[in-house]
Write a structure and sequence with these properties.
Blueprint: E1 7-12, E2 17-22, H1 25-30, H2 35-42, E3 58-60, E4 76-78
Antiparallel strand pairs: 1-2, 3-4
């Protein structure tokens, strides 16, 4: 897991605050890539309606981001749309 930092940056646009949280390594092992962890993190919010202010917009990249691997810098954006 050398490509991941094991951190999440959460940004609350309503309050204008941001903070870092640790991301469990088990999650990164179980859901590889950028889209996998994004979808897994979104699963906790699926009960909310799409227009709820608490609904996140998740930007995620894979472990090869920042390397010379082809298409490794493509971010994945996970959201729930109406």
């Amino acid at each position: 897991m050398n490509g991941w930092t094991g951190k999440i940056l959460r940004v609350d646009l309503t309050k204008g605050t941001s903070w870092r949280e640790d991301l469990p390594p088990e999650l990164l092992h179980a859901y590889p890539g950028g889209r996998g962890p994004g979808v897994r993190l979104m699963r906790d919010y699926c009960q909310l309606p799409p227009d709820d202010p608490q609904m996140p917009l998740i930007f995620a990249v894979g472990p090869l981001c920042g390397t010379a691997a082809p298409t490794a810098a493509r971010p994945g954006v996970t959201f729930l749309r109406p």
